[in-house]
Amino acid sequence: MEAFRRLLVWTGLAFGLGLLVLFALPSYRQGEASIAGKSAEDFTLTIDGQTRRLSDYRGKVVVLNFWASYCQPCVEEAPSLNALQRHLEPRGGTILGVSLDPEPTGYERFLKNFAVPYPTWRDPDLKDGKSKIALDYGTSLIPETYVIDRHGRIARKLVSAQQWDSPDMLAYFDALLNQK
Question: How far is residue 52's CA from residue 91's CA, in Å, rounded to a whole number?
């Protein structure tokens, strides 16, 4: 009887721990349905000396990507993001990168090394290594990406590096781009 009780206790603990691990994994959070359909938070940024707002991109599908040059998964996904930009741009979409690099040197080196073809901006207002814009979006890990539809609503949130130019991902974007 004692052995059976111990087995039940350990089974319960293992099950509980398994659930905690499952919910903590970034893959569990892919798509985060709870934010789908919400309006994307507007913010101001300066790109190439011009002040812009996220709302200036209304009418386009925007892939809002939070990244940093010191983030290895961000480095790994950079080539596929470049390929996605080449796919999106002629179809009415764009990637908008927001770098959380604390210093401009790493940011500028990253842009040069990867020949980043899409608009990107380094948030200069980091407080304790945190970006107010990223925090307003609920970003806790990088890379983290928000897909925003033509009406300025969040269609999807993706956590961790993605293969942005995979056939499944391109089909997803084609379907989103075809929506009016």
Answer: 21
Specify the amino acid at residue 2.
E
Number of H helices, E strands in the chain: 5, 7
User: Do residues 159 and 130 lie in contact, with contact meaning Cβ atoms separated by under 8 Å?
Assistant: no
Cα–Cα separations (whole angstroms), residue 149 to 14, 18, 47, 59, 175: 41, 35, 21, 8, 11
Helices (H), 53-142: 72-88, 104-114, 132-137
DSSP type of residue 103: S
Chain centroid offset of residue 69 CA = 14
pLDDT in tens, 61-109: 999 999 999 999 999 999 999 999 999 999 999 999 999 999 999 999 9
| Contact (Cβ atoms closer than 8 angstroms) between residue 1 and residue 25 | no
Pairwise CA distance, residues 42 & 132, whole Å: 12
| Contact between residue 121 and residue 52 where contact means Cβ atoms under 8 Å apart | no
